Amino acid sequence: MIGIHTPETEAEKNVESVKKKMKKVGLTHPIAIDNKATMWKRYSNSYWPSIYLIDKQGIARWGWSGELSWKGAKGEARMREKIEELLREPGDQR
After folding, report:
1. How far apart are CA 8 and CA 34, in angstroms?
2. Is 47 exposed, middle or buried (0-12, 13-18, 19+ CB in 10 A)?
């Protein structure tokens, strides 16, 4: 898992603040700081957060806009299902 932090405000561009928040909430996976919103624009995002499942070939295969459990949504379960589907696929899909 890799996170990409795209700030909503100028204050959220501070790398040290992001590191402190990661530690506070227990995030240990790598998180890139995308202060220029490069990936945000590339994926045509409209929501914080947006979550993408990328396969072994680097292809975005599934996405979820917004928080996974917002108002009872089953996003986390859906993500787990999609991960399991990808893990069952044979090696090279090209």
Report:
1. 11
2. exposed
pTM: 0.68
Domain that holds residue 13: 1-45
Q: What is the pLDDT of residues 47-87, one digit of tens each?
A: 888 888 888 888 888 888 878 788 888 888 888 898 999 88
Whether the CB-CB separation of 29 and 55 falls below 8 Å is answered with: no
Q: Which helix (H) or strand (E) holds 61?
A: strand 60-65
| 6 exposure class (CB count in 10 Å sphere: 0-12, 13-18, 19+) | buried
How many angstroms separate the Cα of 85 from the Cα of each of 8, 25, 35, 54? Answer: 33, 29, 33, 12
11 and 39 fall within a common domain: yes
Phi first, then psi: give them for residue 60, nearest 5 degrees. Answer: -70, 115
